[in-house]
Batch of 2 targets.
Target 1
Amino acid sequence: MSAPTPLIAGNWKMNGTAESLAQASAVAAAAPAAGVRVALCPPATLLASMSRALAGGQVMIGAQDCHPEPSGAFTGDISAEMLADAGASLVILGHSERRAGHGEDDAAVASKVQAALRAGLEPIICVGETRQEREAGQALAVVTGQVRGSLPAALAGKAFTVAYEPVWAIGTGLTPTLEDIVEVHQAIRATLRDMFGEGGGAPAILYGGSVKPGNAAEILALPEVGGALVGGASLKAEDFLAIVAGSPKA
Ligand code: 13P
């Protein structure tokens, strides 16, 4: 099976107001037209305005979470259908900041993945070990366990992406060694093949955690690294575009 088209996605987290749309437009103006998929995942408040600002262009819009149910009495929550209605085509699910800060376990993430599929959104499902787990030699067991628990069988044949984001590398400036990144990505690929057979070769596996213009090209060139999920460095168009430029093209 041919390698998946790389995806470089910017996760703005809880950052950005209307004036930040200028950064999104600058990304759209310079993003490559082919060979790599580029996405921005702003806070929910900016989904509709960003999708209007970038309409007709190459840059895809993603959300950062969704509720499992399509509608109902869930004050403050947003359904996958609502995200699609606002212009999203992707949704990040199971980010460690949601797993740790909002008590989301693998089963909760899997139910959100089902919701994304129901609404026609492509899920980006995040997994990653804590520092303690890595130091205890448990990184591979934790990550592959999260993949098995967070990815429902309904993903078979659907478009989706897995993002490996070691918790200790997020926002810290720390990254695993290149060998460690490859080892985890290969373990994720083997798990996907075990779960989905031949189809497990199709999804891109992204790396996330302190990806910057200075380290992106060497990480993105690694075997089984199919793109990046970028936090802080995605807030400035110049930095994000430099990371996109470091991606090998499909
Ligand atoms: P940083 O790039 O800021 O380390 O964040 C990574 C991340 O959590 C993306 O989802």
Target 2
Amino acid sequence: MVRADKVTEERIKKLREEIHYHNYRYYILDSPVISDAEYDRLMRELIELEEKYPYLITSDSPTQRVGAAPLEKFGTVRHTLPMLSLENAFGEAEARDFDQRIKRFLRMDGLIDYVAEPKMDGLAIEIVYEDGVLGAASTRGDGVTGEDVTQNVRTIKSIPLRLQRGESIPRRLEARGEVFLSLKAFKELNQQRIRDGEPPFANPRNAAAGSLRQLDPKVTAGRPLDFFGYGVGMVEGRSFTSQWEILTALPQWGIKVNSLIRCYKGIEACIDYFRELEGRRRDLDYEIDGMVIKVDSLALQDRLGVKARSPRWAVAYKFPANQSSTRILDIQVQVGRTGTLTPVAIMEPVNIGGAEVSRATLHNQDEIARKDIRIGDTVLVQRAGEVIPEVVKSIPEERTGKEKEFVMTERCPVCGARVVQLPDEVAVRCPNTSCPAQVRESITHFASKGGMDIEGLGEKIVAQLVDSGIIKDEADLYYLTQEQILALERFAARSTENILVAIDKSKQTSLPRFLYALGIRYVGEKTAQILAEKFGSLEAIEKAFMEQLMEIDEIGPQVAASVTTFFAEKKNQDVIRRLLAAGVIPTPPISLGLRPLAGHSFVFTGGLESFSRDEAKNKVKELGGIVSSSASRKTNYVVAGKDPGSKLARARELGVTILTEEEFKRLIGA
Ligand code: IVH
């Protein structure tokens, strides 16, 4: 092992402190004092030093946010003090009731000091700092025990790995607060998921919860989760007298607190602030669903105590929900790209939170049965944030008896084919791959931005082309003539030329785009990228067996089956053949992202502790590297274990990089 000298060790310490400080300026105070480039330079220097002296890496180093390997399942954590929930109050009268109850209980009159905080719509977590270093983090769970989400919480940039020393650091600090996703991040995440063929999250809270409960911290790291602290659990080595004091101490340690918290005398001031907050709600980049009112004095909190699972000293004063009722005029059935039949509620237009809503997906027939939704029903509809409207439930009391139950059609509403239901699916599907609806949807998908990206070829024009019978599949696009397009309604010489040029331009494409464009079930953009990188060519993917596909970590039996079935189908083979014949060239990716050791050769000498020699060799090969038995000038690394042989001396002579077992493990990400 190469040891660092004192000066270098000090430098590493200094860099860490500086970077922690700049993270704090950037993420917590939102007022950076150095440029991004300068920050990057510090970070790079630290990474380089840590790579050189890996034994000096500490868990609270700013480079160590994502490091852990995926888990099998989450462990559990018992909270030192239970994490309570809150009772709700709707409307001013219930807010005043809360205030009255407190005064009665305490036998006090006069104004109570309250803290008013936005009620974040995310999920509660507890993070524990010991001597200022982030240790365990857990979800609320049932309030007594939660799940250990430490590795995921470490990836949240606004949660410090180490506390700032603005105020003396308590020996143990259990900080509590809400993890959430900004509306911007939520929208981007959902767009990405739709492009990848994954179901979008219903709202930012589900997205935040889903992101935090990932077994692989790398996935969580890709989701820009955020955090606001709002309280503490047990604290050793520091005492507080009020909630306000807690809320002012947290940011000094580097734990972010919502800037919209206020301290007021009496309930009326809180109610005024509630109205103000309601007005400001739409300008916020995160969702809040009300205001939490807390008695400020911790001594009074103590006297008030807890009943059942919620404290007497706090209440969740909720905004009226973003819901409204309307009537379902009809339930229509839409046919998707893969033939899935989706029932859609057509409703009397209603305004919810400033947007007019007249359609909402009902997902499938089971969902309709579960919610007991009938045509003609009055239903409760909700729209959270920018989210797709959703039918929450029917209101049976409003029924007149004329409502009709929805029956899923036995025939496809577009082509009339008898629908099928696969044994493990709720949805029914139109099995006719030549169904005009499926053809239209497939070709639209083929031409879409993430696919072949044919500019100007949207849903409407595709429908015109398909309905007039000029094209029957994706390949036909590349054999279109000027006359054929000109004959369509609303097409002139200019627009015809534009379409033809765009189609021609799309011939130069990448293999991942091409694969995605084919519309293979379960193959979204991400999977297409992985397939292209792993197999390197279209032919290799076409010929791949289930087993080969499933050797790839990210690919399970469902995706593998879908890919092999797709390429086994004569019709698909024919479309691909004609696409290639027309001059479509899917270029394989050059990225070696998944074969990070490609082009690197390794020699092993001496015994390893964590692997057998064969395991280590396989690992290198899996990652694209080469293993040789003896070192030469072409060797990149010699991995030296216990009692290395003469190969080590030879490596030294040749000036080859020598790795310890630890360094090797780091290199392969073990
Ligand atoms: S205090 C005993 N403060 O609301 C106090 N909770 O229904 C318990 N929440 O699980 C929590 N913003 O997820 C508190 N400023 C805030 C909050 C807040 C959101 C959530 C939290 C909690 C739930 C309680």
